[in-house]
């Protein structure tokens, strides 16, 4: 019992020193969600916790029986009053005929040992991170090999006029920064088959992203030029030429920052992605490209 108390106090002291607050949960282990390391650690810790709580419970039960067992003097005193006590078994009757110290200690052990399994198991818990936002890119195979790309892609897709202003001024935006990070590390990413990708990123899924975050849809071909996709007016061509040159090969077709969100409508829970991302993932497998807007 004393050994268990020392262990528990030691864990409490370490947790407080790490978090600085007795009310704050202590995160003492983390790993990649794609592996089962955290799950295995959680299982192992709960096995150890249950083993420790079983030892404490057995110890508490032993000392409760010791406290509940009357001495020869206590038996004689009860007999003198015409009463009787139980011998050799746990007894509620005995508890109220013994000394106040034994009664207080017996009740204390009883109250602390009964809920111990439940409290101990809830002291350690596993948490998984879920992402609702992700970058969605459509690119050629050459994009994965480090071939040059031109932001925002050959599709000229932008969300609003401010995006175009950022392009003209070459101001760094969050979308451009995310794309740069993606392009630098995309060769290290894991390739998913089409069905696995659709199941993970489908619009109606509200569980969030755990194993992966950003996604690149790879299309056959060396890339695209603006001239291949668009027949712009003279004004539009002059506006877009400094941003996406007409004849330069672009390994990037489209890019967007998407967001999964859940809503409740008339008591029914629904899940969806931002409207601009839905055009990338139509159920019929086709992709729509709208005429670029001219600010």
From TrEMBL:
**Which InterPro entries does this UniProt record tie to the protein?**
DUF6536 (IPR046623)
Domain of life according to the entry: Eukaryota
According to the entry, every stretch annotated as the DUF6536 domain falls at: 3-144
- Record's keyword annotation contains Transmembrane helix: yes
Give the source lineage, highest ranks first: Eukaryota, Fungi, Dikarya, Ascomycota, Pezizomycotina
**Segments traversing the membrane:** 43-64
Q: Which residues form the signal peptide?
A: 1-17
Provide the alphabetized UniProt keywords.
Membrane, Signal, Transmembrane, Transmembrane helix
Q: Pfam families under this entry?
A: DUF6536
Q: Mind telling me which PANTHER family this protein's record contains? A: DUF6536 DOMAIN-CONTAINING PROTEIN (PTHR35395:SF1)
| Protein name listed in UniProt | DUF6536 domain-containing protein
């Amino acid at each position: 019992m004393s050994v268990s108390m020392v262990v528990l106090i030691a864990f409490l002291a370490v947790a407080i020193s790490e978090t600085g607050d007795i009310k704050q949960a202590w995160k003492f282990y983390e790993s990649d969600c794609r592996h089962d390391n955290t799950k295995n650690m959680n299982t192992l810790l709960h096995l150890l916790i249950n083993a420790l709580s079983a030892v404490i419970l057995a110890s508490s039960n032993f000392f409760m029986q010791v406290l509940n067992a009357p001495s020869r003097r206590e038996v004689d005193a009860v007999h003198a009053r015409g009463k009787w006590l139980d011998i050799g078994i746990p007894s509620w009757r005995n508890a109220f005929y013994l000394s106040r110290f034994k009664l207080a200690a017996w009740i204390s052990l009883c109250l602390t040992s009964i809920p111990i399994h439940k409290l101990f198991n809830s002291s350690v818990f596993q948490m998984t991170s879920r992402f609702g936002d992700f970058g969605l890119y459509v690119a050629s195979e050459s994009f994965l090999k480090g071939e040059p790309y031109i932001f925002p892609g050959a599709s000229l897709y932008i969300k609003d006029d401010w995006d175009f202003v950022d392009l003209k001024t070459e101001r760094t935006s969050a979308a451009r920064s995310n794309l740069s990070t993606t392009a630098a590390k995309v060769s290290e990413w894991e390739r998913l088959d089409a069905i696995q990708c659709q199941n993970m990123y489908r619009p109606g899924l509200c569980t969030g992203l755990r194993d992966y975050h950003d996604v690149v849809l790879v299309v056959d071909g060396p890339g695209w030029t603006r001239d291949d996709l668009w027949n712009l007016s003279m004004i539009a061509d002059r506006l877009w030429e400094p941003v996406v040159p007409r004849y330069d090969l672009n390994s990037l077709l489209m890019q967007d920052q998407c967001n999964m969100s859940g809503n409740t409508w008339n008591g029914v829970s629904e899940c969806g992605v931002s409207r601009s991302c839905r055009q990338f993932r139509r159920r019929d497998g086709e992709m729509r490209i709208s005429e670029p807007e001219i600010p």
